[in-house]
């Protein structure tokens, strides 16, 4: 693969990407981007990993990626399904400890596919989490809610709809999916993700643990502690870099090249982009976690993530051979300016001539 774009933040190409994104992330001391177009890739960063003179940010600086973690969980589901370990229509209770399954509203069963398409009927957060989160709401709200708390809360949940009836974004649902996949494989989520996704794709700087040289997160220009989300790890615990996220997106552009000797993973990289429903009917399509937007002659797949200290965007278009990611070490704003600017950058890359 060519590396015809420069990596220095002072080049014209990098400046055109970085300047608008940095402007859309007030309070960030570090912004990094990765772009792939026409077989070429660019990696660039600006700023420092912390206010007051930290080390320079770069393409290997780890950021908290929040809900972009969900796309990794979706890929793990597709990989295990392609390998025959699970099936999309498996009821989730098949892979959870006895007595910990959700109780669907109006009958039926919550399946793994329901969890991966936000159609399980489960609410955004599990019962009991907000009570434990309140004292640390602006710093680390989920750090004391562990896997045992999640499984204990699940049968107490009151679903808002029958499985498959309505779309409602659910951290709870994808976190439960991660537990179910780990249960099906007889291991824990972190180990399973590393074995089936991270190592095969060469994502050495991606994972849920502490990362040396990571970007300090900021909320209203105040440093935040490292993000901890043990009970909902599959929904938001990962850290990654601009380089790793770009490699991850490039794997979706060319599954055969990314996993030449791994048929299950190669299939999974295609399966996650298959539309499962539209929300609303005729609107954006929902794939396995990924959102898909139909554009003239191509589709854009995208997802964003945020923690108390970082905001991240990822997106790609297989038809145009384009991928883009942007990371900032400041929490999401109410208007989502950074994510919106990143999406517009992806759209522009997919429609630019040449």
From TrEMBL:
<dbReference type="InterPro" id="IPR012338">
    <property type="entry name" value="Beta-lactam/transpept-like"/>
</dbReference>
<dbReference type="InterPro" id="IPR001466">
    <property type="entry name" value="Beta-lactam-related"/>
</dbReference>
<protein>
    <submittedName>
        <fullName>Penicillin-binding protein</fullName>
    </submittedName>
</protein>
<dbReference type="Pfam" id="PF00144">
    <property type="entry name" value="Beta-lactamase"/>
</dbReference>
<feature type="domain" description="Beta-lactamase-related">
    <location>
        <begin position="25"/>
        <end position="343"/>
    </location>
</feature>
<dbReference type="InterPro" id="IPR050491">
    <property type="entry name" value="AmpC-like"/>
</dbReference>
């Amino acid at each position: 693969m060519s590396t015809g774009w420069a990596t220095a933040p002072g080049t014209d190409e990098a400046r055109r990407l970085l300047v608008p994104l940095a402007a859309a992330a007030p309070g960030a001391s570090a912004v990094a981007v990765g772009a792939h177009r026409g077989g070429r890739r660019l990696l660039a960063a600006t700023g420092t990993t912390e206010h007051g003179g930290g080390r320079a940010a770069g393409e290997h600086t780890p950021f908290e990626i929040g809900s972009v973690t969900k796309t990794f969980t979706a890929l793990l589901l597709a990989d295990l399904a392609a390998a025959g370990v699970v099936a999309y229509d498996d009821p989730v209770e098949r892979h959870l400890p006895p007595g910990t399954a959700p109780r669907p509203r109006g009958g039926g069963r919550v399946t793994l596919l329901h969890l991966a398409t936000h159609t399980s009927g489960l609410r955004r957060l599990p019962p009991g989490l907000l009570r434990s989160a309140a004292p640390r709401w602006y710093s680390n709200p989920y750090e004391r809610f562990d896997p045992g708390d999640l499984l204990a809360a699940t049968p107490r949940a009151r679903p808002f709809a029958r499985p498959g009836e309505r779309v409602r974004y659910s951290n709870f649902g994808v976190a439960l999916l991660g537990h179910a996949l780990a249960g099906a494989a007889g291991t824990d989520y972190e180990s399973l993700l590393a074995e089936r996704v991270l190592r095969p794709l060469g994502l050495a700087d991606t994972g849920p643990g502490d990362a040396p040289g990571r970007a300090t997160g900021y909320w209203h220009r105040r440093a935040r502690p490292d993000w901890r989300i043990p009970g909902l790890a599959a929904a938001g615990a990962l850290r990654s870099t601009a380089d790793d996220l770009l490699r991850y997106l490039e794997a979706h552009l060319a599954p055969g090249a990314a996993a030449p000797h791994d048929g299950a993973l190669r299939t999974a990289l295609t399966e996650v982009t298959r539309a499962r429903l539209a929300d609303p009917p005729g609107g954006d399509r929902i794939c396995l976690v990924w959102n898909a937007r139909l554009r003239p002659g191509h589709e854009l797949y995208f997802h964003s993530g945020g923690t108390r200290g970082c905001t991240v965007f990822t997106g790609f278009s297989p038809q145009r051979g384009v991928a883009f990611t942007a990371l900032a070490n400041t929490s999401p704003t109410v208007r989502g300016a950074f994510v919106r600017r990143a999406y517009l950058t992806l759209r522009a890359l997919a429609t630019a001539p040449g």
